[in-house]
Write a structure and sequence with these properties.
single chain, mainly alpha, 2 domains, 3-stranded antiparallel sheet, 10 helices, 3 strands
Amino acid sequence: MIVTGIKKASRGKCLIEFDEDISLLLSLRAVQDKGILTGEEIDEAALEELIEYSDLCEAKNRALRLLNQRAYSERRLKEKLCEHCDEHIADQTVKEMRRLGLVDDEKYAAALAEELSQYRGYAVFRIVAELVKRGVSRDIAENAAEELEMSDKENIKRLIKGRFAKYTDSGNDGRELTDALSRLGYSYSDIICALREYIEE
């Protein structure tokens, strides 16, 4: 096939027209990198290579946009990319983001574990479950939870003194407090132990 025209389109793309009344919308970056010019003849193998490279360029751009909005685990990022491209393209893209230091499951898990502990008051059990839900492997999730500065019992006492102080009124039988802490993933034994220590302080 002979390239009969190259027209810039929106969002970093361009329309390539061929003599066989065929046109393709491809990544402008891919066309420039491959040095495609009007009048050039492209065989089927070269065209397939160009299309795949264009898909890869698009996937990298999409990954950068996603990561600019918030952090992702490798698995979650791949799932998002697979909504728009083939799995092997998503794999290559995630690998490139990892090489650039833009995705790192251990750093992601450590930062998210700290946030879930400090700001949401989650117990270690629930933190691990949340990290796994967001695409982090269980081993990395458990390691991140183990590295937290505050233990479950310390976190319970912090919550009792702060957010859940209203449940410690003399007219409260303690059930609401226990239920609230249980919803955050704390075990009954840790709740009772922390309550005893809180009362004795």
